[in-house]
Structure formats: structure tokens, C-alpha cells
Write a structure and sequence with these properties.
Elements: E1 13-14, E2 32-33, E3 37-38, E4 43-50, E5 57-62, E6 68-72, E7 80-83, E8 86-91, E9 96-102, E10 108-117, E11 123-133, E12 142-146, E13 150-151, E14 156-164, E15 170-175, E16 181-185, E17 193-196, E18 199-204, E19 209-215, E20 221-230, E21 236-246, E22 255-259, E23 263-264, E24 269-277, E25 283-288, E26 294-298, E27 306-309, E28 312-317, E29 322-328, E30 334-343, E31 349-359, E32 366-368, E33 371-376, H1 386-389, E34 400-403, E35 408-411, E36 420-425, E37 430-432, E38 452-454, E39 457-462, E40 469-470, H2 471-474, E41 482-486, E42 492-494, E43 504-505, E44 510-511, E45 516-521, E46 525-527
Parallel strand pairs: 3-11, 13-21, 23-31, 42-43
Antiparallel strand pairs: 1-4, 2-4, 4-9, 5-8, 5-10, 6-9, 7-8, 10-11, 12-14, 14-19, 15-18, 15-20, 16-19, 17-18, 20-21, 22-24, 24-29, 25-28, 25-30, 26-29, 27-28, 30-31, 32-37, 33-36, 34-35, 38-46, 39-45, 40-44, 41-42, 41-45
């Protein structure tokens, strides 16, 4: 993976006033809302809503010459960048935002334009919006129509209308495309709505917005809505035409993923996790286990839902979204590969990505280099005293632990699991012997799993696994509470962010037993 990971962004924009339209799979719709006219030099607000864009997205707005960006409802430090009249807004879960601009001092009609980009870097144009800058005077009535960019055949569709500056009473006459059928509206259908074929008239008495519902045709194609808005003086203005695509959404292909540890010891019992989706009512997973591994059992019914033929194991699914199975690892060190296939209810097969696992005989002792070493202990030791663990090691200073609660370096008195310690060794190739690392025998009743409190800021930690494992899995208990991890010697990985100094992501960053690590925490929590 490259040093800087590119995060793909998806934005689906949509008007940010009163109306929220339903999410439609595959729709990419965007409408910008702003006043029809303002006075020269006046500040005004532009509203944008985004929906169905996933976890992150971006909106790039081009503001007319003479206009000046002021601020937004987003964090202008981390989520907004300016480059002349181009302003980029980064969204992470927000459904809407507003931004403020100052109008030009010169009368005229000005155009706002913009684009948004989906997760596959496909760029969509945001429909241009015009605004008139003129000295205060009569404000013209205006109306906008809001509808999805695409819908499925024969589904109900919500159309939104926003009306402004029409006075006490007004009307909207909508011409619905042939093939669409009017259903109802949020207005009083008896006194405020009349239907004449595909022409529907809505009467307004102070309302600034309303919705109406139509049923889409069963035929794919592009359909256009048109309309006219009339104010209290019977002055008509055209509502800009809006198009929507009626299209059949293709079925989602079945998919499966395999999860397993990065490494295990020889002859260890290994749990393999399988997650599946969109396979229909029934399906099957056929796993090919490495030749030197042995199948043991699964969380499925082993009599009726599992068959074993050598190292090929077939799992039969009836609605399950996940299951686990266990195998016994090879007794020989090496890298081994699992492969598999998922078949859906139509017997359409899709490959499950290969997964590799390392069988590694753990080190018998810990080798220390001359100078500072960052170490940890993954388990409770039979003798955890400093003298007991460091017997025979020549070191220059007390064993140090950074206390994140007090921001002070403490002198350690014992080795505790999950904590990272710094030790300065006076000569190269000194060893903490295996005999000093004897794991405490299982107690009756069993002792609780080791845990440590972590605090906002940098914390010195170690792994709780006795074999190599990804940071993503090792730090699962604090996944939402940390931003990055550092091995103490400059190798950095980030948790779901895009930083230039990132060596890799936590899903690929391997944490090893007996090594120490720095983790940057954003919220207090418990690591265990």
C-alpha cells in the first residue's frame, strides 16, 4: 500500500431547506438552494443537502467573480479549503450544510456552479444556480422542483416544491410526464389540489413548500416534469424543467469475505470467520484448506450443513450471514493459503479472495539491541518483577513507563501486560531469556483478561496476543477512540484517516508480541 492512501469520496447533493426526499438506490441527485435576488454587497446563505453518499464525500463549489466566501456550518479549518473562487467542502456523515457568501457590489445576474464526486471518482455536475444582484425593490416570485435523478419502475416518487415571494396566495400547475400517475400531496387534497389528467394544480395560502407523490411508469426511460408558478397578482413564472430516469436497478451480486489471524503457532487451533451477503435464500461456501491443515468443526450443524472431502469443506447456508469454522494448523513453520468459492441460490459462483496465514514458532527469548528498546509483555507472568524478568540484562536506567493520565514518566516496579516499556541497554545482543517469561498458569476460577485504561493523547501499549496480529484486530476494543499507532521507531499507521506520513493502514500494520507501541487516543477508554 502506498505511503499516502487515497480516500475515495462520494457526494450526492440535494436541497437543504425543508424537504427530505427518500433515498433511492443508485440515485445521484443534487440541487443547490439560494435566494433569487439580493442587494449589492449583502451577505446571504447557500444551502446544500447530501444523502446516500456513504461515509465521506466532497462538494466543489465555484462562486461567481465578485462574490466572497465567508464561512460555513462545517468546520472551516478541517473540512473546507479555498482556492480563489473555488471552495471545497468535505462531508463525513453530514446530511446538509450551509455556507455564507458576500454578494458583488455590481448589479447583474451571476451563476453558481459545482460538482460532486462519487466513491469511484465519477464526477457529477451540480445544476447551475443564478442569482440577481440589484438594489432593493420588488422581489420576483420563484419556485423550484426537487426530485430524484433516477427511480425504479412502478415505484412511488416524492416530488418537492419550494415556493417563495408569491404574496398571500399563489398556485403551482405541474405537468406530470405521461406514464406517471398522481397519488396525493401534503396539501389538503379536497380544497387545494385539482387533477386534470396529467395536469395537477396546487393552491397555496402561505405555504413555503409541499410534497406530492406520483407512481413511476413500468417502462425505462427519461421523463421530464414541467410547471408554472403564479403569484397573487396572477403573474406567471416558469418552473425549470426537471428530468428523472426510470431504470431497473441491477441485482447486487453475492459476496463473501474470510477473516483469520495473521499468524499462529504450529499445531494451534485457528478460528476462520466467513461473512456472506446477497446470496438469496440458500447458498454454499466451498473452502479449500491448506493441505497441512486439518478441519475440526464449525458453528453450523456439522451433520446436515457441512461436508468434508479431504481438505475441501462445503458449508450449506440457509439465511445465515456469517459462520466460523476451526482448523488445526500445520506443525511446520511457513506461509499457508486458504481459498474458496461462494455459490448463490441460482448457482452463480463468485470467488472468495485468498487469505494467507503464517505458522511461526514463537521466539524463545527477547533480543535487545544496544541503546533504547521499546518492549511489552502480552500475558501475566509467573514472576513479573523487574529483577526476575531482567535477570542477566545490563541496563543503564530504571525501566520507564509513560503514564498518559499524568503525562509523567514513571519508574516501573513490575511488568504488566498491555503496557509498553522503555529500557536502555548498555551493550548489544543482550537477551531476556525464555525462563524469565514463564506465563502464569491458568487459575481456578480463571483470572480476568488483562486490561489497561487509556487516556486522550499518546499512550505506551503492547499487544495482548502471543503471536503477530493486525493493529485493526489487536486494538478492536478502542477502534473508535484512537487515530494512529507508532512502533516507536518511526513506522506509523492510521486508523481510517488519510495522512501524508502514514506508512499503511491499521488493517495491514502488524503488531508483534513483546514489542512496544505508541497509540494516539482521541477519547478515554479501556484496552483489552
Amino acid at each position: 500500500m502506498s505511503r499516502q492512501r487515497k480516500i475515495s469520496l462520494l457526494v450526492v447533493l440535494f436541497v437543504a431547506t425543508v424537504i427530505m426526499l427518500p433515498t433511492i438506490a443508485g440515485a445521484a441527485t443534487s440541487i443547490r438552494t439560494m435566494p433569487a435576488s439580493v442587494e449589492p454587497g449583502a451577505e446571504f446563505m447557500v444551502s446544500v443537502s447530501a444523502y446516500d453518499y456513504g461515509t465521506i464525500s466532497s462538494v466543489v463549489e465555484t462562486i461567481p467573480d465578485g462574490f466572497t466566501y465567508v464561512n460555513s456550518t462545517l468546520d472551516d479549518v478541517t473540512k473546507v479549503t479555498e482556492d480563489g473562487n473555488t471552495v471545497t467542502f468535505y462531508l463525513m456523515g453530514q446530511s446538509s450544510f450551509d455556507y455564507t457568501v458576500t454578494a458583488s457590489d455590481t448589479d447583474g445576474t451571476y451563476i453558481f456552479s459545482g460538482v460532486f464526486t462519487d466513491v469511484d471518482q465519477v464526477e457529477y455536475t451540480i445544476t447551475d444556480s443564478s442569482i440577481n444582484v440589484s438594489a432593493a425593490g420588488a422581489v420576483s416570485a420563484s419556485a423550484q422542483r426537487l426530485l430524484p435523478g433516477s427511480v425504479e419502475p412502478s415505484t412511488t416518487v416524492t416530488v418537492g416544491i419550494i415556493a417563495a415571494d408569491y404574496g398571500t396566495i399563489g398556485s403551482v400547475v405541474e405537468t406530470i410526464p405521461a406514464g406517471f400517475t398522481y397519488v396525493n400531496s401534503t396539501l389538503d387534497g379536497v380544497t387545494k389540489v385539482t387533477v386534470d389528467g396529467n395536469t395537477v394544480t396546487f393552491y397555496l395560502m402561505g405555504q413555503s413548500s409541499f410534497d406530492y407523490i406520483v407512481t413511476a411508469p413500468d417502462t425505462n426511460g427519461t421523463y421530464t416534469f414541467s410547471g408554472v408558478f403564479t403569484d397573487e397578482d396572477q403573474v406567471e413564472s416558469t418552473i425549470t424543467d426537471s428530468s428523472t430516469d426510470v431504470t431497473t436497478v441491477p441485482g447486487i451480486p453475492a459476496s463473501a469475505q474470510r477473516s483469520l489471524p495473521v499468524s499462529v503457532e504450529p499445531d494451534a487451533t485457528v478460528t476462520v470467520g466467513i461473512t456472506v451477503a446477497d446470496y438469496g435464500t440458500i447458498g454454499s461456501v466451498v473452502e479449500t484448506i491448506p493441505a497441512e491443515f486439518t478441519y475440526v468443526s464449525s458453528t453450523l450443524d456439522g451433520v446436515t450443513k457441512v461436508t468434508v472431502d479431504g481438505n475441501t469443506v462445503t458449508f450449506y447456508l440457509m439465511g445465515q450471514s456469517s459462520f466460523d469454522y476451526t482448523v488445526t494448523a500445520s506443525d511446520t513453520d511457513g506461509t499457508y493459503t486458504f481459498s474458496g468459492v461462494l455459490a448463490d441460490e441460482d448457482q452463480v459462483e463468485s470467488a472468495i479472495n485468498d487469505s494467507s496465514i503464517d505458522v511461526v514458532t514463537p521466539p524463545m527469548d527477547i533480543l535487545l539491541k544496544e541503546g533504547w528498546n521499546f518492549i511489552s509483555i502480552p500475558c501475566v507472568l509467573e514472576n513479573s518483577s523487574i529483577d526476575g524478568v531482567l535477570a542477566g540484562v545490563s541496563y543503564n536506567s530504571p525501566l520507564l513507563y509513560y503514564n498518559a493520565e499524568t503525562s509523567v514518566w514513571d519508574t516501573a516496579l513490575t511488568f504488566e501486560p498491555l503496557k509498553g516499556y522503555w529500557i536502555n541497554v548498555s551493550a548489544a545482543d543482550q537477551v531476556i531469556l525464555e525462563d524469565s517469561l514463564v506465563k502464569q498458569e491458568i487459575q481456578d476460577p480463571p483470572a480476568p483478561q488483562p486490561q489497561i485504561q487509556i487516556y486522550e493523547g499518546w499512550n505506551a501499549i503492547g499487544s495482548n496476543y502471543e503471536y503477530a496480529e493486525t493493529a485493526e484486530k489487536t486494538l478492536m476494543s478502542i477502534d473508535a477512540k484512537y487515530a494512529k499507532i507508532d512502533d516507536g521507531y518511526g513506522l506509523i499507521a492510521l486508523n481510517g484517516e488519510d495522512y501524508e506520513d502514514a506508512e499503511d493502514g491499521t488493517e495491514n500494520f502488524i503488531m508483534y508480541p513483546y514489542n512496544g507501541y505508541w497509540v494516539f487516543v482521541t477519547l478515554d477508554g479501556v484496552l483489552g
